[in-house]
Every structure is written in structure tokens, then in C-alpha cells.
What does this fold into?
Amino acid sequence: MKIYHNEMKIRLAEIIIRKSFRYRENPPFTLASGRTSNYYFNCKPTTLDPEGMNLIGNIIFDMLEDSKVTATGGLTLGADPIANAISVISYQRGRPIKSFIVRKEVKAHGTKSKIEGNVKEGERVAILDDVITTGGSTIAAIEKAQDYGLVIDRVITLIDREEGGKENIEKSVSNVYSVFTRTEIMDLYGGKSSHE
It folds into this structure.
């Protein structure tokens, strides 16, 4: 499985570079944190792509293989397609893992729940995010999930921008993993002659 897993990661990196990664010197991109950067990751074109979802679901399912995680989710919208991909793949591979959504704002009507999905207090879960920069949105998801009574086993992000977010999250959850780091994507991007 590991060889196949490595092939999947290579293919996923190609999709990210083509669909979700931009680099420019001037003007730099403004990030959600307010910082500026020469590179920008918009993971939605990858996480909402059929092949991208399949690869992400398989890769992260493998990352959960040794865990007792029964559900994955995170702050809407970044985590939603990732959690759903894992849910579908996990069912196909014989170990169903549910998905859930952490709302940014609680609805003023209905159940007024911070968490949507078929999860219950005491369940062991993984919090997901598409990109970690400062870790702020991931930490918000962790806090809301903990308030709901979920036990956070680990955090998994598609891309860690390596700007202190992982270290910030580790103050709340010790197990923080990424499918890719910014360095890995930049190294692969730098190796592309066409810089697509």
C-alpha cells in the first residue's frame, strides 16, 4: 500500500500545483490573517475535484489507519469536502468514518448546534483543514468540537504553510499532521519548467 500511497501523493501534488497554487512577486497576495505572501493556496479547486477528492480520501484514510477515530470534520468550508471524501473512501474500504461540519456561526433557529452530523459526545475525532497558516480557524474548530464533547485525537491538514500554525495548534492538540508542507509543494513547483 505504501508504494501506491506515494504514487497518489505525487499525483495529488501535481493537481495542487496546477489547480490550487499561485506564485507572484508583485503585488503579493493578502492572506486571511492579514499577512502578505508571494504564494497562495486556494485548495477548493483540488478538494472539490473528483480525482482530487479520491486521492485526498485515500491518503488521509491511510493516515487514520492506526487510530480509533470514528469521524472527521472541521470548520466549514475548507474541511467539508475533505471530510466527505474520507467518509466515502472509508466506507468503500470497509472501515466507515463519519463526516461532520463545524459551523462558523450558530443558526438562530432549529437545534442551534455548532456541530452538524451524526456525531455524539465522547466520540474520538480528527479535525481537518485545507490549509494551516496561523492555525486560527483550526483552533476555532477544535474549541467548538471540544465544547460539543468530542475528543480530538489529531489534526490533519492538506497543506501546512509552515508559518507557525502547526506549533499554535500543538498547544491544544499534540498530534498535528499534514499531507504536504509548503516546502514540499514549492520544491515540486520549482522543478516544473513551465510553472503551470
